[in-house]
Amino acid sequence: MADIGRLTRARAATPWLTPVTLVRVVIVLSVLVVWQVMAVSGWFYGDVVPTLRIVTVALVKLLSSGDFYWNLWATIQEVAIGLSIGGIAGIVAGLVVGANKFLAKAFEPYLYYLGPTPKIIFFPVMIMWFGTGYGSKIAMGAVSCFFPIALNVAAGMRQIDQVLIRVGQSFRANPWQMALKIYLPAMRHPIINGLRLGLGVALIGTLLAETKISNRGIGFMVIDAYTKFDMPRMYAILIVLFVLAIGANTLVARLGGLDDIKQK
Amino acid sequence: MASAGARRFLPSVVGFSSIVLIFVVVEILIRVGLINRFIVPLPSDVAKSFGRVIVEEDILHRFLLTGWECLAAGVLLTVFGVAIGVLLHRVPLFRRACETWVAAMASAPLVLAYPLFLVLFGRSALTIIMLAFIAGLAPVILKTIEGLSTTRRVLLDVGRSFNLTPAQQFWKIYFPSALPTIFVGIRLGLIFALINVVGVEFLINFGGLGHLINELAERYDLPGTYAAICFVVLVSVVFFMATERAERWLTSAA
């Protein structure tokens, strides 16, 4: 409403080829040229550094094979279930610890210090508990993402503006209404940020577990390509995987409005 | 006074007691047969096997090996990370072009490329060091840029008023001012490096502590596996606390 009648400056159209875009294009082209020179120079084994044409053919072959999408679906399912279990547990633990100072002092140090430990070392335990199938990979995803989500939610809970809580109380909101109308909307960004970090580590945990013992998933495909020494296929899988992981991370951040916070 | 002191330590006591209570409950559940002892070993057996694992599995040597790999990766990521960060800060066009790429690199599961590194560097410590280096590089670069960019205007003006050369301006003003933030990045990088060193040791069955866990699991030495996992968790926690203490000291000194 306050903007009515105010003159706003029209945003200047950004030229298509900015210096930044040009630098990016030059960097990408330089990397590709260096790679191609390395591949055709004969200084490296042709199988280890294949030419760009061979990698491109492998990439096209990978993306047009049903096998890739079947394995991708298996990994997506494992990560999604792991993230759901670890995410719900992390949100509950974060809410409980964040809402109570005593519990925070008693248990948050354990969450804080166990968070950065390498989770893959728990994989032998997960295999014994949940077997070598889907279960152990889902468990790895859940254990990996639990800590960043719990810590983010706990920190977010403490940062809620007290005015919002008093407003809720003055309207005599019941605990359920307080949670739905005050706490969760106020904590949207910490939760989304926790889920974003959780997604990254759940993905790593699940994929690494797949490389260790599995017969399905993208992690299995990477280790299978290594076992068969099919390097072009391995490069293709890694390129697709990195693009998908970075894309998923950016998407979660954008959907959660985290980009807006950074810009402010 | 006594009650104030007791109140201060009460949460820690409750937290620690809860952990002990969980172990006691698990011990009882295993002893009465509700949990299969061939899947979860008795916590008392795990505690007893600590000594055996330390003595028989040459844990000091493995610890030093993992420590050396972390140190090598740490030196590499400090030298290259800070140098790349300084370069990106000095050339704003490069910074605008590459900073988002570095941030994207931080979110990519780079450790998944370990089979590729196995091909490039063989099943050796170099594979582990290079992977840990690459995995920990992004936070060092990003924090170096952040530290240099947030140097206070007044400090830069003081430098200019003394007619400092660009090199003097960097070493006398920018670098000391950015050092605490750079150390935050190095600390994050070292934590990533440790996670990746132990993880890759476990995955490729080579090296120090990660290798030990895999070996004990393959021997189906359950108490030993659990004890080794606890040992690695303990090492990670001590490492994390030590770097945190160093960061606090550096931040307060700045």
Describe the structure.
The complex is a heterodimer of chains A (264) and B (254). Chain A is built from twelve helices and no strands. Chain A is mainly alpha-helical and 264 residues long. Chain A has one domain (65-263): MetI-like (MetI-like fold, Orthogonal Bundle). The two termini of chain A are 21 Å apart. Chain B folds into two domains: 2-40, no CATH class; 49-253, MetI-like fold. The mean pLDDT of chain B is 89. In chain B, α3 runs parallel beside α6, α8 packs parallel to α9 (209-218) and α8 packs antiparallel against α10 (222-253). Chain B is built from ten helices and no strands. Helix content of chain B is 85%, strand content 0%. Classes of the chains: A mainly alpha (264), B mainly alpha (254).
Short key terms for the protein model shown above:
heterodimer, A: 264 residues, mainly alpha, MetI-like fold, 12 helices, 77% helix, B: 254 residues
Q: What's the total number of strands of chain A?
A: 0
Q: Characterize the quaternary organization of these chains.
A: heterodimer
Global structural class of chain B: mainly alpha
CATH-assigned homologous superfamily of the largest domain in chain B = MetI-like
Walk me through the topology.
The complex is a heterodimer of chains A (264) and B (254).
Chain A: H1 19-41, H2 52-63, H3 66-99, H4 101-114, H5 123-130, H6 134-158, H7 162-170, H8 175-186, H9 188-212, H10 218-227, H11 231-255, H12 258-263
Helix pairs in contact in A: 2-11, 3-4, 3-6, 3-9, 3-10, 4-6, 5-6, 6-9, 7-8, 9-10, 9-11, 10-11
Chain B: H1 2-31, H2 43-56, H3 59-90, H4 92-107, H5 114-121, H6 125-149, H7 153-161, H8 166-204, H9 209-218, H10 222-253
Helix pairs in contact in B: 2-10, 3-4, 3-6, 3-8, 4-6, 5-6, 6-8, 7-8, 8-9, 8-10, 9-10
Can I get a quick summary?
The complex is a heterodimer of chains A (264) and B (254). With 264 residues, chain A is mainly α.
